[in-house]
Each structure stands twice: as C-alpha cells, then as structure tokens.
Amino acid sequence: MGTQQITAPPCTQPAASGVIHSNVRHSAGFTVIGNHLAQHRGLTLVAIGLAAHIQSLPAGAKIGIKRLAERFPESETRIAAALRELEATGYLHRSRVRLADGRIVTRTVSYNQPGGDAPTARPAQPRVARSAAEPAPVISAQAQLMAPAATTPPPAATPVPPPTARLAAPVPLPQPQALTPELQRTAAALLSDLRRHAPQLVLAEADVRALVPGVVTWLERDAHPDTVRHVLTADLPVPLKHPAKLLRHRITALLPPPLPGTHELEAARPGSIVIPLQNCDRCDRAFRSRHPGHCRDCRTDLPTAA
Description:
The protein is an alpha+beta fold. It contains 10 helices and 6 strands. The strands form 2 sheets. A 4-stranded mixed β-sheet has the order 3-2-1-4, with helices on one face. Helix 2 (45-56) crosses helix 4 and helix 5 crosses helix 7 (205-220).
C-alpha cells in the first residue's frame, strides 16, 4: 500500500489564553457602539461605560449628575469627571438655553461618532396627534439627551452666554508678610516638583514665578510642604486644561488661617484659666480674685448669718 495522503487540514485548537467570544445575534433591544469608543485609549473605563449607557437611552431621557448617581454606584464626583471627559473628546456637548418662560435649562447632545456629520434628511416618522390643549414637552432642567440627527432647537429657545462671561473678577493671590529668598526657593522648588507627583501639572517658568508668593503665604502659616503638595495634587479633574489656573484657585481658596498661639490654646481648654492671687488691702491676707480689694473676712458688703 502507498503512503497515506492527508487531504484535510487538522482542526484548529482553541487559543490557550485570551478572550473567546460567544456571540448571539440581537434582533431587538440593542445599541451599536463603535470600537473608537469601546477601545478609546484616552478615556477612563467609567467614561466609556457612561457613554455606552447614554447612547442606549431613548431621546428625552434625563442624564443629570444626580440622576446618574442614583442609578449607578459611582459618586457624583466621578460621574461629573466622566462627563467632562466625554465633552473633551467630542462624545457629549452641553449648552445652556433659555426657554420662552424665562427658565434656563441644560441641553445635552450625545454623539456616537465625534466629528461625524449626521444625515441632513431622514424619512418622516409617524407622529401621534396632540390636541391644542395638551402642553408641549418641556426640556428637563437637569439635562436632556437628543440624537445628533434630530437636534433641532425649539423655536422659543435662545442661546445663553456661557456662565464664565458673568463671573466676578478672580480673587487676588494671597501675599506673604515677608518674601524672603529662602522661602522663595522652597516655594519654587515645590511648584516645579509637582509634575513628579502629577504629570499633568507641568508649569511654565512664568507660572512658577507668579504662584510663588501664594505658596510662601502657606509656608508662613506653618503649612508643611507635604501638606501643600497634597492639597495641590489631590483629586485633579480629567482632562486638566489649565494647570496654572487650577493651582492659583486652590492656593487662594484653600488657604488655611494662621496657627493659633500657645496662649490662645491654653485659654480655650477647660480648667486652664487660673484666677490670680491678690493681697487683701486691709489684712494683707492672700485670696483669689480677678480684681484687687478685700478678702472675704474683711468685706462688709457680704450678708451675715442670722
């Protein structure tokens, strides 16, 4: 007999490691998410999950921070940071509009493809007739999700200037009592070293020089450099667009008061106030009183026992 010929390739063995997909085709109740979002390298996992949740909601759903915090275990701070991430990468846009009744509301638009142009025309959808007495739907004061292709603003809504245009002048940076060279060097080194602890806090030399007096004020008030560093680097927003402005705000708004002296602390402790000794003006006997005068035996204004 001749040599046996193998005409069929061997069966492919499953991979020893890595994910194995077991997919079922959806016929209803699903949302298409692009890999540009699901595998985004610049977004946190919380932001990616929040974007997928928002894209799965129907138009008109409320996605305010408090509403999302009630729905998910993440805190309001983490949800707010994730929303800012989505705004920075183009998956979300929030704007303030004024309604016909004068109320100012937040309008939120979710984009499943940042930078992509939505179709200009869509097939007409059947609409349910509404009586003239029935009021039109009102946009939620928290937020409203609307599909990018159907973002036609209501006739009564007019753009509102951004809140930053009406903000008051910034609070001036605190100034120290004595800007000594030693404190200046310490403050400048602390500010320049922040990028080792938070890479996004890269400051220009001009920003370091401008912020030095504020840090010196902290050091004058006996704040340890580690304490100052922790206050300036903790819980940074994502993404951080203006590190110098953020540090200026924290240095100014979180400035601690001067430490109280030993005398103030002793006077505040229970039982620490000692009434001084006085010498009686009549018998020269020592007695405790806040004011000089006569002792108890020499006082004539006290009532006598019957």
